[in-house]
Amino acid sequence: MKKMLNDRYEILDKIGDGGMAFVYKARCTILNRIVAIKVLRPEFSDDEEFLLKFKNEALASAGLTHPNIVNIYDVGQDEEINYIVMEYVDGMNLKDLIKKKGALDYSYALDIMKQIAMALNQAHKNGIVHRDIKPHNILISQDNVAKVADFGIAKATTSSTITVVGNVIGSVHYFSPEQARGGYIDKTSDLYSLGIVLYEMVTGKVPFKGDTPVNIALKHINENIDFEKDIPKDIPKDIKGLLYKLTQKKQSDRYQSAYELINDIEHIENNIELDFEEDYELYHTQKLNILNEELKTSIPKQLEEEGVNTNMRRKSKDKINNKKKLTILGILLALILSLSIVFVAYNLKGFFITKNYEMIDFENATLEDATNRLEAIGVSVQVRKELYDSSVEKNHIISQVPSAGSSIKKGQTVKFDVSKGGEPVTVPNVVRKTLESVEDILKESDLKEGVIDYEFSSLPEGTIISQKPRAFTEVEQGTGIDFIVSKGEEVKLVKVPNVVGKTLEDARILLVELGIGKIKYEENKDKKEGVILSQSLKGGQHVEEGKKIDLTVNEYKEEEVVEEEPSKKVIEKQISFALSEEEETVKVVVKEKGKNGSKNIYNKTIDIQKSGNMISVPIEGYEGETKEYEIYVDDAFYAKTTAEFK
Ligand code: ATP
Ligand code: MG
């Protein structure tokens, strides 16, 4: 695939492939927005008639704008590549959602139904019938908005030129009886298909299954849904009623418009009872006739043996004639049924024509799907090699012989190389590593990140607590490893108890979840001694576990007897000394020596010329004390003296 279409759309990722196209996520470089681009499979690009219809239909639906319809932005061609540019829906298609979750909750299903019905209502009002309503074409965004894709495009696929590749296998499960018969299709045909979608949403499976498209199509024509057996008991009867009315075989028995359906859904949502009860009761007691049962088993065999071609009318007639025991009525009914098979066969003749077929590209398709499609036209399948390949899912096809575009015939064998998935690798240990470091570790082992969950833990935030699969187990290359990552410690809130009036001892027990902070003592003669007078955090409120609470405790003070110290008498004196007259200015420091070292009591620079060489320094001490003094001149020791204070 090219990286750029028409110098405008930059292809980013492949997001899906269907019967007739591949879908890519892309960026429109002009409008700088993300879009989805549906690129026609190359085998269709050569078919002028198909191409024209495809473009016309895409353009017709481009006129539709509705929040529940995937918007079409552009239709284009770049050399051989034909494409449609549309709104990108970030989410999942409904088929994958059902595959992942199984049956959906019925109120959720009802909400999706309503959204699809709104989309259909808009399209039908504009004269556009979808023709291919199926869960693959319903995209569910992350916030549960349903958007219907591929409006009207299916019309192009009814062209007789479509061979094996047609999307009929996927779609036939949702075909209305008139579509199966090749009859007249109208808006009620979309509503029938929507009924089948509803059935699948609430049960997790499709109602009519079969080995071949013809078989399935026949069931849409002949068989009824068994409401008693197949629909879960807890589904409200009004939803069964909706389903019943949507899936009526006769177009005129169904809802006549999407609008009517929306109305009924809204009634159900508002708990207003609807009155389809009678019809519905009748419906599940109705039995299929015996003849029909008999034909059901004989027809598929016949199809397998002979292929479905125009000779079938004669052969099935012969078979019926041989059954002598059948009543005349039986024969008539059988004739009508066999005629309907011819119609079906005609409608699906792309699968059964005995001429040459064009081999299509089965790369990435499941072996099962490819086998079903090829065996349906009498081509056998052989697995040539099983190989490890992490880029192709297990049991999906890596390559094929003959290649796409070659011609194949009934009776021929097609060979496939099938993927065994990625090669086995050993899972590395990532527990206790940070989430950021994991990407590189996984890349080295050819693994990728799986689902990440977050939990509170004593490990630092962002650290991995556990992993699945466990370290050192063997898994396939490309497997996703799920982690649980720490979101740090949980902040637990505790209720502050009221401890005022309690003893400190009791308070310590009550306050275990909090911490006791500062304890202050105060006196309050009105309260008992030892009790708590106040607390810094009010009782009854919630605070983080471990938060400190300060307490004030009642403590009776003892009467203080202050012993009066007899006051000592301070005596002031002077020490005097003479300096040498030779100097002009000198620095004089006097230190008084005491118990805790000496302290400067005098520090001056003296100009001897001006103030003379005799210095007197005032000193003081208590009566009876003796103190020592040291004199320094220009930082050098000069003299020492002692003074007695009397
Ligand atoms: P069919 O060929 O019968 O239509 P399909 O609907 O599965 O089958 P596509 O229409 O080619 O095939 O789409 C393939 C897948 O691509 C879809 O199932 C869907 O998951 C995804 N897809 C299609 N259109 C969009 C879109 N606009 N946004 C996001 N994903 C999309
Ligand atoms: Mg589609």
UniProtKB/TrEMBL annotation:
Which CDD domains does this chain map to?
A: PASTA_pknB, STKc_PknB_like
Q: What reaction does this enzyme carry out catalytically?
A: L-threonyl-[protein] + ATP = O-phospho-L-threonyl-[protein] + ADP + H(+); L-seryl-[protein] + ATP = O-phospho-L-seryl-[protein] + ADP + H(+)
For this protein, the record's SMART domains field holds:
PASTA, S_TKc
Query: Any idea what this protein is called?
Result: non-specific serine/threonine protein kinase
Annotated signal sequence range: none
Q: Cite the entry's keywords alphabetically.
A: ATP-binding, Kinase, Membrane, Nucleotide-binding, Serine/threonine-protein kinase, Transferase, Transmembrane, Transmembrane helix
- Chain residues that bind ATP: 38
Q: Which residues form the PASTA domain?
A: 353-420, 421-487, 488-555
SUPFAM superfamilies assigned: Protein kinase-like (PK-like)
Per the UniProt record, the source organism is Tepidibacter hydrothermalis
Q: Which residues form a coiled coil?
A: none
EC number(s) of the enzyme?
Answer: 2.7.11.1
